[in-house]
Amino acid sequence: MTMTRIVGLSGSLRRASFNAGLLRAAVAVAPPGCVLEAAGIRDIPLYDADLEAASPPPAVTALQRAIDAADGLLIVTPEYNQSIPGVLKNAIDWVSSFPTGGDRIFRGLPVGTIGASAMWSGTINAQTAWLPVWRGLAAMPYQGDTLYVGGARDKFDAGGNLTDARTRDRLAAWLAGFAEFVAAHARRR
């Protein structure tokens, strides 16, 4: 049996964030046959083509390698001002930039997007705002079930850990569907 490998990114730098906690919970409920590895974006600087030309930061090249080697990418996005978080978009911009990465890293890559928010609507606007980015990078967005975790203050503890059993069950079901999608559409190397 081939193991499906997914890299997950949280779009929040706050250690106790709902989205960092949702990613940790996703790692814990990954279905059999799937390995979900959390990668970080904390050490990625603001995109600067001069810096890239001089010497790409090690955090950027490490993230590029991790995503390039993965079968799929899970984005766990907060919603800031009804759109995507700048730090996460910055990381994706670095990974997709030339000459070190390039859009080839994302071409045909299955990508799933979930998120948690204190607002009742969850991260519906942010998840929708990611779609043109994935289209522009020729990635393959997961169009199966959606997972918008609203009212997150009641579902996570002060440390950002998911405590709501119903949300954990919904996450496990979503992740099982996404893992199947990734396995069916993984790029063959």
Care to describe what's here?
The protein has 189 residues and is of the alpha/beta class. The protein has a single domain (4-185), classed as Rossmann fold, CATH 3.40.50.360. The chain has helices spanning 18-28, 49-54, 58-69, 86-96, 124-136, 165-185; strands at 4-10, 34-39, 72-76, 110-116, 140-141, 148-149. Strands 1, 2, 3, 4, 5 and 6 form a six-stranded parallel sheet that branches. Helix 3 (58-69) packs across helix 4. The protein is globular, with a radius of gyration of 16 Å.
Number of domains: 1
For the record, give the distance between the C-alpha atoms at the N and C termini, rounded to a whole number.
Answer: 17 Å
β-strand number? 6
Just give the CATH class: Alpha Beta
Could you say what the CATH architecture is? 3-Layer(aba) Sandwich
Q: Give the helices and strands as they follow along the chain.
A: EHEHHEHEHEEH
CATH homologous superfamily annotation: Flavodoxin domain
Query: Radius of gyration in whole Å, from Cα?
Result: 16 Å
Structural class: alpha/beta
**Helical amount among residues, as a percent range?**
25-40%
Look up the CATH topology: Rossmann fold
